[in-house]
Design goal:
L,D-transpeptidase catalytic domain-like, 39% strand, L,D-transpeptidase family protein, peptidoglycan synthesis, cell shape, cell wall biogenesis/degradation, LD_TPept_cat_dom
Length: 186
Amino acid sequence: MIVVSAPSADSPTAELTAYERVDGRWESVIGPVRADVGELGVGEPADDEFRTPAGTFPLGQAFGREADPGTRMPYFEATDEDWWDEDVDSPTYNTHVHAAEIDSEDAENLYDSGPIYDYAVLIDHNPQRVPGRSAGIFLHVSDGDPTWGCVAIDRDQMRSVLQWLDPAQDPHITIGVELDGPPAAR
C-alpha cells in the first residue's frame, strides 16, 4: 500500500509513504518522501484539469524509458512508439498503444515526454475508461514541478518503489488529504 497525503485539497505537493503488512500490522518501508501532485491539488478527476484523483486505486502496468530496474510488476521499456491515448473520442481512450503513429487527437508519447517517464507505474483510477474521468495517471519521476494529475517522486525513490512493488501483494495507492497511514480495512 502506498499512501499519498496532501496537506490540503488544493496543495500541489504531498508526502508519499509505502507500507507493507508485517505480522498483521502496517509498517513503513519507504518514506515519507516529498511528492508532487496535480497543479490543482487532489480531488475529483476530470479530463483537462490538472488534479490528482483522490481515492484508493490499484497499481498496474509499469514502464520506463530506462531498462527494467528489477520490478516484479509487468514492465515494458518505452520507445518512441509507445503512447497513452487520452482522446475521449478514441476507442483506445485511457490505454497504452504501441504504434509508429496513433490516430488520436490527444495522445502522450511515453518516450518523448522526457525523464519523468524514466520510471513509472499506472495508477489505475479509471479502469472502465469512462470519458471525462481523466486518463493517463501515473506514479512517475518528478521534475520538481506540479503534475498534470499524476504523482511524482524523486528518481531514486521511484526506482526503489518499482523494485519493492510485487503484483502478488495486490499493490494499491491511496491518495487524499491529511491521511494518517493506510486504510485500516485493507
